[in-house]
Amino acid sequence: MNLSIVIPAFNEESKIxxxxxxxxxFLNRHSLEGEVLVVDDxxxxxxxxxxxKADTGLAAKLKIIRLEKNxxxxxxxxxxxxxxxxxxxxxxxxxMCIPYENALPFIKRIRARDLDIALASRYAEGTVIYKNxxxxxxxxxxxxxxxAVWIAGLPKNITDSQCGFKLYNGDVGRKLFSQCLLSGFxxxxxxxxxxxxxxxxxxxxxxxxxxxxxxxxxxxxxAKQVLKDLFEVRKIAKKD
Length: 240
What we know:
Blueprint: E1 3-9, H1 16-29, E2 34-41, H2 47-52, E3 60-67, H3 73-83, E4 88-92, H4 104-111, E5 117-121, E6 128-131, H5 135-152, E7 165-169, H6 170-179, H7 187-197, E8 202-206, E9 208-210, H8 219-238
Parallel strand pairs: 1-2, 1-4, 2-3, 5-8, 6-9
Antiparallel strand pairs: 4-7, 5-7
Helix pairs in contact: 5-8
């Protein structure tokens, strides 16, 4: 199987059918044998039912994993990636903020064993932003970045650890996520730190990005947990 696309979803009944259809259209359009895995993170709406209504065409397989309780985005992504079978795994947030075509060069590089992990970056040279986040969110994002650098040890050259569009060599991704401890939003940071410690190659790439204002991120209410998780990643970074 060439490509697995993992879409974590929590209360996304208004978007998820379209998400799945765009993912499968991408697979079909580029003759990629693949699968789409929707992980419903304990939604209390009809996310799973709406996902099942998607027209997946001929080339893509659709798998819906329904978690009984909300366990966090990190847990949902981990569940999907560990269930994946693709040579390459792409994790993408619901809402289609980034066109799947932006991933094509990096799917090719990973399949050619030229690269292990590719991270979309809203700050990379060449990125085009059609609709940006509100200014307070942008300020919080930069503050988080520097906290990740100074507390957790994120290299400064990685500019956007939290963008919800990432590619992994399938075997590498499944190995790293099997080790992942964090179940919340900072799982991305933990995976990057683990990958660097284990010597995997990582690159960032520019994207065409449109902000989805209907985000599940609530910075004020989650600040305490984010700080706790930053120090947890710091411990992981310092382990032999």
